[in-house]
Fold each of these.
Amino acid sequence: MRKTANNIAAAVRALIEVSITPQKDVGFDNIARRIYEFPEVKSCYLVSGGYDLLVVVEGDNIQTVADFVAAKLSSMPNVRQTATHFLLKKYKEEGQIFKQAKDEKRQNISY
Amino acid sequence: MRISKKVDALAPSGIRAFFDLVLGMKDVISLGVGEPDFVTPWHVREAAIQSLESGFTSYTSNKGMIELRRAITTFLKNRHGLSYDPEEETLITVGVSEALDLAMRAIMNPGDKILIPEPSYVAYGPVVELAGGRPVFLPTTFETGFKLTPKQIESAITKGVKGILLNYPSNPTGSSYNRKELEAIAKVIKRHNLIVISDELYDELTYDFQHTPLAALPDMKQRVIYLNGFSKSYAMTGFRIGYACGPSDIIAAMTKIHQYTMLCASITAQMAAIEALKSGGKDIAVMKKEYLRRRDFIVDGLNKIGLECYKPQGAFYVFPSIKSTGETSMSFAKNLLEQQKVALVPGVAFGRFCQDHVRISYASSYENLKEAISRIEKYLKKK
């Protein structure tokens, strides 16, 4: 993946729900490994619920991420279905709350 | 003239115009805020919301809810070994500001003097004057870490000096006294039978040693009016809730004034404060850790760019020297604001002798502090 000058500012993240047909006698592990070995994949989790793997992908822009999902992820053997959710706004991550400038409720100056 | 002579004689804030300038500006990085940048912990806010939903909207006892007074005295006993009777020796007030005002009005006779270290919080002098007393300011310096010495207090005691007002950790310097230093000061206080008004609002934000309340020292409890609250340690500035603990005669006198003027502190704030004392310990620890990180960064950063900065023991302020710039504190603050959009408070607001200093509050995000240091450096380089 081409790196940009300012990865943090330019990076687009997406959470992708991946539904898988598990392999006989093996389960999800091999397929998960093939997915998480892509450098674009930042996180990969096996989850309970309506799909199997939750995959976090990062790319330069929406198009890059969409291309990755279409070309690399969806087309993988045993991947039945994907649903891509682009991150629009971070409120809190790993315990850190992101304050927006307009969140400042205090007066600019006080004794 | 319609305004009382006493109020008319009070010196207006010398930096009102500067404050107005800052308040009117957008996109300023402010290092001039005297309150936490953390919001009140959610469980405390929730307790306040629940109290309203449950219909707790009436007056409380003048002295404050007994549940809160008991929670405070239990806390002080466990934390500091300090025992106060919740009935006779504890009063809930509308912020420590009200407690301070009540204390002064309860003890001052016209012309009585109170010793106040300088630099000090802006309200101290005016509150003493409004109570009919006379503030006597004792300058402290960078060289002594902005702390009073026993010798300095001793030599200031003249006829008419009734007491001394201490604030530690201090606003604006962040200085605090360790136990040994307090014991030395206590000797002078006992020798001259002074009353002490001890504003210890920032006590939980003491980084380098365990805070010791002055009232916890031997033979001091009966001489000290202990003031504390919730604004800084629990980030509850807007709730306006504080308390005073002290000898029963003084607390009774303070209560007498309080019952006529304020009646009681807000019930919502009192119920939130009960929750804060019950479960807020972990929140303080998180905030304190972050403040400490910022303190170390800002002291180091200021010294590196050429503004000599003493490392304070508590609160969230530093009081660096701007002597190397040749500017007065007001001109430095104004020029920095106009040229680099960084706001801080001129030292002269806190003491006539503080022209060479500015107060920087590090109650602001680490990122803001980094950016502010960078902009101050740019300002210094352009001079």
Note: The helical segments of chain A are 7-10, 29-36, 62-73.
Amino acid sequence: MKEILIVEQLKKYFPIRRGFLNRKVAEIKAVDNVSFGIDRGETFGVVGESGSGKSTLAYVLQGIYKPTEGRIVYNGEEATHAIKSNPKLWSKNVQIVFQNPGSSLNPARNVYHILKVPFCAFKIARSGSELRQRIEQLLELVKLPADYIYKYPNALSGGEKQRVAIARALAVDPALMILDEPTSALDVSVQAKIISLLSSLQKDLRITYLFITHDLSLLRNVANRIGVMYLGKICELAPTSKLFSDPLHPYTKMLLSSIPVVSEAEEKAKPKKLPSKGEIPSAADVPSGCVFHPRCTEAMEICFGKEPESIHITDNHEVRCHRIN
Amino acid sequence: MILPLLEVKDLHVEFKIYEGELKVLNGVSITVKHGEKVGLVGETGCGKSVTMQSIMGILPCPPGKITKGNVVFKGQTILSIVENEFKGIKATGISYIPQDPMSGLNPVFKVGTQVKDVIKFNRRDSERATGKRIHETIMDAFKKVKLPDPERIAQTYPVQLSGGMQQRVLIAMALVTNPELLIADEPGTALDVSIQDQILGLLNELVLKENVSILIITHNLGVVRTLADKVYVMYAGNIVEEGSTTDLFEDPRHPYTRGLLASVPKITGGGVAEGIRGRIPSYLNPPEGCRFHPRCDHAMSQCEKERPFLFEIEEDHKAACFLCKGD
């Protein structure tokens, strides 16, 4: 089995309820018909602007939200029901590292108590001494000194907090880790350190990563394949080098051309400057046809009425755009 | 010789706290000329915001204290001016665009009202603005920042606007007093890249059209490269390198600038560098000599004792590093 996780036609709709009877008047299609597979040991990147549904996707795969529709296959076995009925058990396979380590760590608990939780929840450690030993191992794994065990989160820097959050996710020895913007709250030099830690962990422990971020240049350096999300849909999915050398969807091109870069060589690698226009609309009021057409510089008549299907250009390059037919 | 618009000269700022004195700014000098776009870049905790607050005169004192140095705006010292004069000179000459659009606007007032308040507060006594004229000024400002349908926008509350539009309102708010200097704190970094791109384009256009200078304070090197003509790199309360954007990005000299540039993930790939080892020092007890030496791979014995001042490498390119001395 090559793929560790296959997602098919995944949907997550949030109802909007109004009025005295609390009737459902509309839906927010946060994740709409998303399909992809993640190979074992790879880093799969998901990129998109805020409001594109990438965090909702992470929460659904983690079991925090229940999927509205669709299938999730884990290790070749149907897992949709397992996620819905017992998210706690599911979290033994899939762990998540949240965006802001400042708010994902309990400020009233020290590092020992924070890292104790997963061991207790899954009854992994049998005795107190074993527990302590395991926690010290975890700290070593994320390259923090052992005396950090009694420190409180407010005594740690942003990078150190994120290391603790990564250690907590590693406690149950997950096969898949969801990284939801793990470095967006950090400075670049700290980000570089966290990224190199993550890639050495991936090598040593053979973890698969689902890396969610809005930073395309970061994904260029960490991901094997990238899915570009816009308004709940994956509009382009390709291997990293392919996506950067030959972006096909206008949205991908727009994102790539608006990255502020730091050298002349990079400036040349960017696609031709597309005027970025408009902003991402509310997910409650999705445009008709192709969801990107109001912002698209290459929109045709067909884009207003008909939603494009996902087309396979090559084996592993998918695009949702009428232009590509 | 034409006077520069803004000159920060050898600014030292200390903060008095229970544990002792935090020596935050350690001799910061910045020059902004007319019509120039200057970037001040550095990581969290390097003193960017304290520098900005000192220029704006909003440094909380106490605990802050300016122990040495001066800020000169159009030939006039503005550190010591009293509240009343401050309103006349600074409030109309310098405008500030805050970082986070959401917290920069008051959620319970309509944006039009908030812009109006800025005009009313800052108007010079000689020009008594009528309601109609104020309204025209607001509409003008909204059109300048390309807000669609300005009449309607003025009647909305901040939550009804998207992040990009809020940022535009804040820029409009900064423009209504016809300032000569705009200080933009992390412009667009709270927004997505495509919107950030629009905001940077807008700022660039305003500098050309409105004849303002701009001081951009950010941690994002890419943003600085896109927008600024001249860059100051800050580390632990010191300016460690300054130069024109092309010089500095093509040929960085200070080890910190190099480390910082290497840490930025590139869209050409090639993996992410290791980053800079260690962390920013405590200001309570900053390292002697060069404040960067404990983290520097090229540190010499001289660096531990003596503080490097800015050495000139070529015209308009200076670095505070002994490696660049005699170059």
Note: Chain A has one domain: 3-93+174-324.
Amino acid sequence: MSGGGAPVRIANLVVTYPGSDRRAVDDVSLDAAAGELVVLLGPSGCGKSTLLRTINRLVVPDSGTVTIDGEDVAGSSAETLRRGIGYVIQAVGLFPHMSVGRNIGIVPELLGWERAQVDARIDELLALVQLDPARYRTRLPRELSGGEQQRVGVARAIAARPRVLLMDEPFGAVDAVVRAALQDETLRIHRALGTTIFFVTHDVDEALRMADRIVIMSAGTIVQADTPLRLLANPATPYVDRLLDAHDAVRRLQLMPVREAMAPPGAGPMPTQGAIDGARTLREALSAFLEGADTLAVTDADRPIGTLAFDDVRRAIASTEASTRA
Amino acid sequence: MSYLLRHPGEVGLRLLQHLELVAIAIGIAFALALPLGTLAARNARVRGPLLGFLGALYTLPSLAVFGYLVPYFGLGLVTTEIALVAYAQMILVRNVTLGISGVPAAMREAALGLGMTPWQTYWRVEIPQALPVIVGGVRLATVATVSIATLAGKIDAGGLGALLFAGLDNDDSNRIIAGSVAAAALAIGADLALRGVERLAIGRSR
């Protein structure tokens, strides 16, 4: 297995669509470290999908370069490049006339793998996305639920072990509960494979939940790029502030007591960077994280009852989102 | 009916000739319509004029078209096939155009994004998706061609039309009936067979 992810470097990228005098992407530079999960966030028309699609050359820039592992994407044929990059779009991307197995096996087959190798890989991937190979291999996409189709879409994208994975609003068509499950699964796969992922969404909660780093875009430019935590703490412009606030994530944190989001004691190494009362809100916990804490002890009348890490806060944001929208 | 029963050999021969006329016409017409329809689906500037021209062609009375062509291509097979191919184009090109342009852009994009070449995308994704509409066009064109091909009997190209026109010339209603029944049976048979193919195509593409 060619392990891990590749670093991606986007430099001074400009894209103008034919017939438009506005730049869809306006002099954007962005580096992603190997294995980083970068979320491109913004309203429709902000250029996030266009930027994503320059990476696999579905969009050709007017100027600027994209390099993967130091190699210019313009340097090889478009087909060769794309077979080495995973690509997930909304559920419509599965081919309805091909079985689930054949959908997943497309890229390995295009790459000329042996039949037996492809079949083994299909079963391995179905198991990875938690679909029973024996039951699902020969089914057609329309016989699957939206969430199952999307898992197949993810399996298809990583079939040939790409080191870069592009996901364009991949979970936009499924309901909030299923979306949370798919987000979990994607994070699990990301941890297991270490693939560099670019993830496009307009959903702030999804971005906060998934990202190592969030890149906020507006009118073709990057407004701010930072970790979820630092974005929440220091929105660089009123635009970022409004974008985050409009989606309520921070306000919801004010309504949730720490004890509802904490992990039970013993779930991780005991914290050393401070303690917080279980009845305090997650908003207050967030402040402690901003001051540099990694993990907090949660106490009830000075007695430790659990631990809280920033990931727990993120999970709490996602679960309130799922329950309010479901 | 009695003619059919007394001369099964002759009716059978005419039926086979007729089938051959239709098969050649549909074969050639499809080979032309696939690239033309694909071009029309990809290029809006080609689509309007092309479909307009073929539609105009389709409205010409078929007997008159045979009449126009005979001075240039003589009596027989060549004239017949030119006329039949021209008539079939309208339906076939229109359905190929509809079928191909009905494939969602996102599907095409997914195929390209996975690393298929444009050629692979066309044959492995777009054509299978468009197949029910394309087969539907082949079915309609075939049934229409079975009917129009009876005119071949008027210009010595054989087929069931030869029976019909011989019957008309000799005031022999038995031959007219035999030819009509056989032509109708052929049209219905072709329709049913191609409906079966269409259902298979739909089953695979939904």
Note: Chain A has a mean pLDDT of 87.
Amino acid sequence: MQLFIDQLVNGVTLGSVYALVAIGLSLIFGIVRLINFAHGEFFMLGAYILFFTFVQAQVPYGLAIVLCVVGMGLVGAIFYKIVYEPVMDRKWTAQLVATLAASVILTNAAILLFGGTQRGAPTSLSNQVLILGTLRVSYQRLLAVAVTLVAFFLLDLFITRTRIGRAMRAVSQNREVAQVVGINIRWIALVTFTVSASLAGLAAALIAPLQTISPTMGALLTLKAFAIVVIGGLGKVTGAVYAAFLVGLAESLATVYVSSEYKDAVAFLLMIAFLIWRPRGLFGQKVGI
Amino acid sequence: MQTVQRGADSTIRRPFGFAPRSFGVWTVVGAVLVVVPQVIHDSFVLDVLILAGLYVGFALTYDLTVGYVGSLSLAHPAFFGIGAYVTGLLATKLHTPILVNLIAAAVLAALFAVAVGIPSFRLSEYSFAVGTLGFATVGQVVAQNWIDVTDGPLCVTNIPKPAIFVTIDSLPAFYYLMTAAAVLILLFMHRLIGSRIGRSFKAVRENEVMAESVGINPLKYKMLAFSLGAAGAAGIGTLYAYFIGIVCPTDLALTGTLTLLVILFIGGSGSLRGVVLGAILVTALPEFLRIGDQWRLLLYGVALLLIINFLPNGLEGLFHRRSRT
Amino acid sequence: MILQVERLAKSFFGLNVLNHISLSVAEHELLSIIGPNGSGKTTLFNVISGHLRPDGGTVTFAGADITGQPAHRIAVRGISRTFQDVRLFASLSVMDNLLLAVQQHQEDNLLGRFFQSRSVAAHERVAVERTREMLALINLEQYADFPAGQLSYGQRKLLQFGLAIIPDPSLLLLDEPAAAVNPTMINTIKQRIVDFNKQDKTVVLIEHNMDVVMDISHRILVMDYGEVIAEGPPEAIRHNPLVLEAYFGR
């Protein structure tokens, strides 16, 4: 029983990280109709920003988180300019391949620049544990979940209450009409990339202290994020959140009750199952996008 | 005066019919291919040529799905891996001959292609990409973790050399085997694309709804291309297993797709000649320039990004431009 | 009755585009369907040709129930259609476009096709023959090797028409064949439609051009809000108050 509860907690933490990452991917797909292969690299770069600011430059953790978010926002904007904008009028397959190329460039540049050895960035909270009866949770995990919830709340406000947020929703529903009513698609795409990368940066800042940092840490995450977005329903951000928690929990439970080696396959098996039995995902429309 | 834009292909080819003029060219090319190992004895060069032949087959079979029916598959390395592992395991555990292993690998790959392809194609074009990606990832995880069967990171080792009338265990012998395989695949694709099936492929790629309207079942043709491509990739995987002698989970890595995409984009997807040239170029060049793994991948990435932006039709696009002036 | 549609229903996002509509088409007749924009005419075509699945109701063609069957199966049964936005295989040659329209109606034997068996080769010769005839009929002979996307709008409309009739369908569905076309071309198209109908074929048109409709139709059906609100010979429809209200009285 104890094990079960532990895994539930792990699952929720994992789910919130996945959610932050998957939301970014879902936003980009929903608004820009792009499958961004380099998304996991946003996470990876965020983790390295954390390492260099928090560990090497000894910047206080709170400030380091902010730097991660802002820094990644910048990276997102640059990425938009260099990788996406040149191909934004081309077929989606060309765009996907462009992001794949970017992903490889970022990963291998990271290996060459930062070295392949794994780094660590533990915070004071990583090892402090909250004890509630038989429940033992690291404060860092609690922080991750708490900050994630705040981030969701703020993001929701942004999307529903601001003009830009409304414009983003308009574009995701009907690009041509949005252009006709005067919405600047390029600007919206830029904002979307910035927000998406910042979310990934935030996720990295929260979770990197709990694991090791390496140039290839983003690869598997990208793939899982895709699976999550499909499970949630292509283009549906709320769906991605639910799917993220579903996958997080499933993975944690599978680690213990099935086998820890195959846990990474869980997300994809779930995705394949959905593709077979409910292709539109949890919240997707019946007609394919 | 209205300029006539040619280049739109029409009508199908007679089987194995080649124009008289190109027959001469083919004879010369064939002669060169046959003579190479007699003249070149440098094992490094032969190694590279064998690798190039491997990638020619790998890329051509990939282009069946990507170039001819227009579906972006990310699972090709997985089918390659299935071929390599099936052969490696059958050869080491059951000592079955190469032909049996080849067929087993190809059939298994085709079955997986059907199992993965049908649900993936159903929802939308995007879901096919992601579905094949999921399959490739699961494949990698399984290869890595199914220790009982695949030995995981320890790899399947000591794969015996194959025997087709004679044992193939020298570089020249493997060169002939790989070249023969590449040529066979090339001829097969040439025939396929020049037939009514090829015409239907193009229709599906061009406008799926319209294809349906004229009676073509898009799913059937997509699955045909996809599973033939998968079987081909498995065949290449088989030859690879015999050549290298070891099969590891890293052979299934998704970065394999990157190399394939670079080849397709450089050479020109949808063109046999372009893909063949692209494969040879992309494989041989980094080898001869002795570029390390990370730098090579970095270069591929940069090259791909540049090509997508400046040369979307690859070398083949250059060919067409020249012939029009 | 070559085509029978019974209580066909289709809604999109809560909007009833087809409202349990029923109608039938007699063999060899030339039927026009008219009605204001948004009355569901194209959706009706889409359901009949299999491009859309209905939410309810049945479609019967030549005695067989074809409801919900995929478009490619219905096409091979003998129903051809054209689209409002002229659809073609743009980067394939005009010749290839027409050959594609024929080949599925001849055979679909994969092995035979790969090895170019004798029967497939024979079919191909016949197909090329028919294609050349059709090219002559629609005046596109010198454009045989042109990519279809390079034709002018009027030529593309003719090609689309050619694609629809070359497989010799028993039922032809034409979606606004006279739209956005110059008067000379309209006459050509009108003539081709009438000629085709005279060969014992059934034709159903969606059209807004009243001159064309009144001129060639045997019978006219008027749709509004996903239902049939009037039907009859051209003269009767011309003076029908419901029709006038539907078109002008909003």
Note: The beta strands of chain C are 3-12, 15-25, 30-34, 56-61, 64-65, 79-81, 171-175, 202-206, 219-224, 227-232.
